[in-house]
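Q: Sequence in, structure out?
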Amino acid sequence: MSLLGIEFDVKGYIFKPFYLVLGMLYFTILLALLGCLYMVLFIRNTLEIVLKDIEKNRNKYKNLK
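A: Exactly. Output:
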């Protein structure tokens, strides 16, 4: 019997294990993608701040000459 055919009846609610596992997989993938997006945006923002600071310091010492 396939996993799609197996049904669990718990207090009137019918659960299909395949759909539960598929839903958890989608949820896990969604969280992983959102985490990767957050990391990319955080790294990009940090690099922009560092580059602006470097440019500011470079311009400050450039004007001293």
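The chain is about 70% helix and 10% strand.
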